[in-house]
Every structure is written in structure tokens, then in C-alpha cells.
Design a protein that fits this description.
By secondary structure, the protein is mainly α. The chain has two helices and no strands. The longest helix has 33 residues.
């Protein structure tokens, strides 16, 4: 059950990252009429904060998790010195 929760979190995180990447291309940054009624509007900074900030935070959390997992995996593997291998 825990794995299912982790997979669902990764899917939601990837959705947020995709949305953050696409958002600046979907709206016309120079025309306030294209984002005035969006969540976070009527200002561009509010719209980008609502639509892109969750993706940035999700990406940071995913990168942190992958780096932490790799560090844990590398420290768990036994280190065998060349002398112990008979060389």
C-alpha cells in the first residue's frame, strides 16, 4: 500500500512539473487579458506562483529524494578492498 502511495505522489509531482513547464507557453506573458481570470490573477506573478511554484517544489522534492536514495544505496553496499579480493 505504501508503494502505491509513493507512485501516486510521483505521478502528481510529474503533473505539477509538466504544468509548470507548459504554463509560460500557454499564456501570453505580454497580454494581461490572457491570464487575468486565471487562478492567482490578475497579476502575472500571482498566476505563475499558483501554476508554476508547485511544479518547482515538486521537482526539488523529487531530485532530493532520488539523491538521498542513491546516497543510501551506495552506503549500504559493502566496500571490498582490492587486498580482500586477492589482488
Amino acid at each position: 500500500m505504501k508503494r502505491l502511495g509513493v507512485v501516486l505522489l510521483w505521478i502528481v509531482g510529474l503533473y505539477f512539473v509538466g504544468r509548470a513547464v507548459v504554463e509560460p507557453f500557454v499564456i501570453d506573458l505580454s497580454d494581461p487579458a490572457t491570464y487575468r481570470n486565471d487562478w492567482g490573477g490578475p497579476h502575472l506573478i500571482g498566476v505563475l506562483a499558483v501554476h508554476a511554484l508547485p511544479g518547482i517544489l515538486a521537482l526539488a522534492a523529487m531530485v532530493w529524494r532520488v539523491r538521498r536514495r542513491r546516497a543510501t544505496a551506495s552506503s549500504d553496499s559493502p566496500v571490498v578492498s582490492p587486498a580482500a579480493r586477492g589482488k
